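User: We ran a pulldown and think these components assemble together. Before we commit to crystallization trials, I'd like a predicted model of the whole complex to look at. Sequences follow.
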Amino acid sequence: MIDDVNEIVAKVFSISESQVNDESSPENIESWDSFNGLVLVDELENHFKVKFTISEITDVKNVADIKRHLKNHNVS
Amino acid sequence: MEKTLSEYISLSKNIEDVNFDKKLKVAILSSFTLNGLSEILHVKCSELGIRYQSYVAGYNQYNQELLDTESQYYKFSPDVTFLLIDIRNFLGENFHFPYDMSDDQRKSLVNEKINHLENIIKNFEKNLNTKLIIANFNIPSYSPNGIIETKSNFGFHEMIEEINKSLRDISKKQNSVYVYDFNQFISKHGEKNVFDYRQFHLGDIQIALNFLPYFAYDLMGYIKPISGTNRKCIVLDLDNTLWGGIVGEDGFDGIELGHSANGKAFVDFQKELLSMWNQGIILAINSKNNLDDAMKVIKEHPNMILKEKNFASVKINWNDKAQNLKQISDEINIGLNSIVFFDDDKLNRERIKQEFPEVLTIELPDDPSQFLPILKDLNDFNVLQRTKEDVERGQMYAQQRERNEFEKSVSNLDDFLDQLDIQVKMKKSNEFLIPRISQLTLKTNQFNLTTKRYQEEEIRNFTNNGDFIVGCAQVIDKFGDNGITGVYIINKQDKLWNIDTFLLSCRIMGRGVENGILSQILIDAKKNGVEEIHANFIPTQKNKPAENFLSDSGFKKEGDSWIYKLNNEIKLPKHLKVEIE
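Assistant: Here's a predicted model for the assembly, 657 residues in total across the polymer chains.
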């Protein structure tokens, strides 16, 4: 399940999945701006059927953070 | 299934629309974050063959953009503007503390806000002659006054209702202004779903991102009639679509229509179809069935809502459904891209989708109770104004069926035309006729010399300009009134008239009406001392029926233009009477 994250990240930022890893972040993905970051949250929430808190959303600095928060929502 | 915002955004990056002949310039002005909306509209327009160009104003810049005549917005000169202001922004702090004000203060605040809106709209109208779609305001489900909100004198909710009412009043007075019922959008999808407090605080997003595609879908309800991509005919299957069961197997008494829960769902579905027919939507039948079995239900079943006269074309046979659909389109003379197809059978739907992708084939679930909500949700049947011709369309097609039967009974075409007693009434454009004239230029594809599309505002400009003649023709025959079905626009240049537009609705093609209209134009020109009439034929994929009209009428080709010299005698066709009003 949690492996779907990379695929979703790739889809939202229109890049190939091979370019996505745990260190992927707004620093190294050009299209990862604040609005597209929220589009990513929306996609993740719909896919994993979870709701993040504002703190979780603003805390995300890279893909590893996303996976950590998803685990806290019992996504494995 | 609606796509997600992310899917729309990625699709919008790879649209190839440079060859589309329809173009639309859309401006989005909003008081809150609406990123993504333009991408969705772009994709949805390209699906309809429209080349979409957009101007998205900066965040909360709507006021400056509309008031400054030098703004980028006015330079972009959009065909349609969506103005979306949210109630929080509009009322400011007063949104949170409405009861810190006295009743009178609330009233004067609302008046001030209404004046502000009127002022913006006036400015728009002064500078742009195109369509403005302004969203009304959401009335929150909450009030600081709780259960006594409805007892409050000019309360919080009443304030917003009052603003919404004023917007409605403005749109009734101004032809080019439409109110989008945003409050109803929230009702339909639910405030708790559409308004996401997290997205609101993170980025002033006031329509949750997963609802943005549905919001764009609603806005397409305006874009479709503006771009002439709306539809006007519903083709229906019978068994398990208009009634439950299969009449050939279950028998007249065995089908479900009325009484049972499913039977009631079919009756309700038919009621909505009849209501649409009453507003000018054409209905037709495409069914694999024994003709006698099916017609007996239509004619005699006590709970059948739709009657034989409601159907402009009836194909009940064992032929291929795609072939039937093509015949229906030919018979009522409308394009396949004007048709919506309802059929419960997946195989039939796949057949039509494959053969005619331009037909809108509706995915129906097995549960008939869902047919009605699906029908009501379609945004394809919208019109910018309901003309007299729209409302009477159903009746006109019934007359057309009689006409066809009469034609079969007469031995040759000339006799048929002679006996039709055709009268052509030529009228000069006026305020009352402008909507219909514009509608015909937007929708007519076949008998159309130049296929120039004109919005109402443009027709109004031509009408008020002394260098132009804008005229139209009403056609009446022994079977009834076909309404306004011909349009011509002429640009006058002293001794030379140039035919900018000449078109005939498909409804009356093949009856020589075009010759009557043209002769009258020639007579009129001669009277005015004109020496030459110039005309153009701009070929499209669809206007072959008009291809030979100019040469058959005595025009001679010179370079790119067709020219008629007025020194010849002008002949009027004998089979029809032309009157000038």
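The radius of gyration of chain A is 11 Å. That may be worth checking against your pulldown data before setting up trials.

User: Thanks, that helps.
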